[in-house]
Write a structure and sequence with these properties.
The structure holds 2 protein chains of 2 kinds. Chain A has 3 helices and no strands. By secondary structure, chain A is mainly α. In chain A, helix 2 packs antiparallel against helix 3. Classes of the chains: A mainly alpha, B mainly alpha.
Chain lengths: 78, 426
């Protein structure tokens, strides 16, 4: 059976896949929440600088991940 | 004389391989763009345009997969041009048939199936490397959707949980951007992976006919023509498949779409990194289903999913049967004439499927129409009771629609009408 199923590769795919495939959307959601949840708005309707910085930090990490993925694809994928 | 025959045959094979590449592009557009189209993050035409350009770019980015398709699954020593041609015929026809029924099945499986069938018919079962076939093609097909469902459902669950306080409108606006980004990544990855399958086939043909040495790399003209064929196919857009993926499986919100596409992109890239390529189609379909599983209250149409899994299971054998049949015809007629006949039959069959498809046309205009579930009325009633929404029942019993949806309704009526006519004839 092990000659047909590469368990090692599959385990790696699941772990790393979860890290990026679920982690990146969660991070994006965190960014959205930080900047747009009801708690984010002060009484005058603006969002505090700290929250904005935190949100943009989340989004930048994601942009970096995307750029990294593109470089990775371009570099041959292996 | 013989040499001339071989080169004409080679031209025929290359043309067929490019045709396959074209069907691959248009069959698989939905993997990347169906969710963005369904949630209206992108207009349908914009989405396929973006996907096509990224496919084009992607095809040039990496060339590492090209050799494995040619060498891992069938014994390259027994492969002749006739076999390659028959294999491609199997792949193309299966792609067109599944496209006609709007089923997102794997193009690469169709291709592999066609080649395997052709090899079996030509030289017997010894020409197939069964370990490679099972380990590299069949098992990953089972694993891909499971992994994708798991990752996408966890991703969706997290996203929905984290953003539950945020207004729906804000969520939609922001997650649409995320969706476009992740869908673009899937398109790019698809371009690098799938264009290489046709490149691999053409390379196989060049090697088989002795034009290229057996350890040859992929010539530039092959890369360019494959990239263009696939981009063109993508741009024309397999609207039927897009519709099934975007509307048929799950009613998608932007948050789900974003989580699904990111999951697809991550799994496709990660799996190719670990040298265990998973089919883009299987991953994308699994991710979309996972995004339905992870969202509370979202309905996954398991009947549609079941039909799809059924198609995946029979993809390799069916394409193999067509491939084998093609080889038998070739051998029955004999020589180059057999190859011409096969090519002619392929053109006829494709034209037939295309013309047939125009009777129930799906295009950029009606791709997002409401999914007309084949489910019985009971389940609609049950659902309306469960969600305390009598509106659901009313829609079924009295087709009173908003103005915007009228068009789709009329289309549907027309379709029904035509079907009716047809059944009268028959």
């Amino acid at each position: 059976m092990s000659e047909y199923i590469e368990w090692g590769a599959i385990a790696n795919i699941i772990v790393v896949g979860l890290l990026f495939g679920a982690g990146v959307p969660a991070l994006f959601a965190l960014g959205v929440r930080t900047i747009a949840s009801p708690a984010a708005f002060r009484e005058d309707g603006t969002v505090s600088l700290t929250r904005r910085i935190a949100a943009y930090a989340c989004f930048s990490v994601i942009v970096l991940a995307i750029v990294g993925a593109i470089i990775y694809i371009a570099a041959g994928g292996h | 004389m013989d040499y001339a025959n071989v080169s004409i045959l080679l031209v025929l094979v290359v043309a067929t391989a490019l045709a396959f590449d074209f069907t691959n592009g248009f069959h698989d557009t939905g993997n990347a763009m169906a969710t963005s189209i369904a949630t209206r993050a992108l207009k349908p035409k914009t989405a396929v345009g973006l996907s096509a350009s990224l496919n084009l770019v992607g095809a040039f980015l990496s060339l590492s997969v090209a050799a494995t398709i040619a060498t891992g699954i069938v014994d390259s020593g027994v492969v002749t041009l006739e076999v390659v041609l028959a294999g491609l015929v199997g792949g193309i026809l299966w792609n067109l048939i599944t496209w006609f029924f709007g089923i997102p099945s794997s193009s690469s499986h169709a291709l592999v199936g066609g080649i395997v069938g052709a090899v079996i018919a030509a030289v017997g079962t010894s020409g197939v490397q069964w370990t490679g076939l099972v380990g590299k093609v069949l098992i990953p097909a089972l694993i891909a959707p499971i992994v994708a469902i798991a990752v996408a459902s966890i991703g969706t669950w997290l996203v929905v949980r984290i953003t539950r306080d945020v207004k729906d409108k804000t969520n939609d606006r922001m997650f649409r951007w995320g969706q476009i980004g992740s869908a673009s990544l899937v398109s790019l990855a698809h371009g690098t992976n799938d264009a290489q399958k046709s490149m691999g086939i053409i390379l196989l043909a060049l090697i088989a006919s002795g034009v290229a040495p057996s350890d040859s790399g992929v010539p530039f003209w092959v890369v360019l023509s494959c990239a263009l064929a696939m981009a063109l196919g993508t741009y024309i857009g397999g609207w039927r498949v897009i519709r099934t993926l975007g509307k048929g499986l799950v009613e998608l919100s932007s948050r789900q779409g974003m989580a699904a596409e990111t999951s697809s992109a991550a799994i496709i890239l990660v799996s190719s990194h670990f040298g265990y390529s998973l089919s883009t189609t299987h991953v994308a379909t699994g991710s979309i289903m996972g995004s339905g599983v992870g969202m509370k209250g979202a309905k996954v149409r398991w009947s549609v999913a079941g039909r799809m899994f059924g198609a995946w299971v029979i993809t390799v054998p069916c394409a193999a049967a067509v491939g084998a049949f093609a080889v038998l015809i070739e051998q029955g007629i004999g020589g180059t004439a057999g190859a011409y006949v096969i090519f002619g039959l392929l053109v006829l069959a494709s034209a037939f499927i295309y013309l047939r498809s125009r009777r129930t046309k799906v295009d950029s205009k009606n791709v997002n129409d409401e999914w007309e579930s084949e489910a019985d009325n009971e389940s609609v009633v049950a659902q309306s009771v469960a969600s305390h929404n009598p509106q659901l029942m009313r829609i079924k019993s009295k087709p009173r629609r908003k103005k915007g949806k009228k068009k789709g309704r009329e289309n549907h009526k027309k379709k029904k009408h035509r079907k009716h006519k047809k059944s009268e004839k028959g």
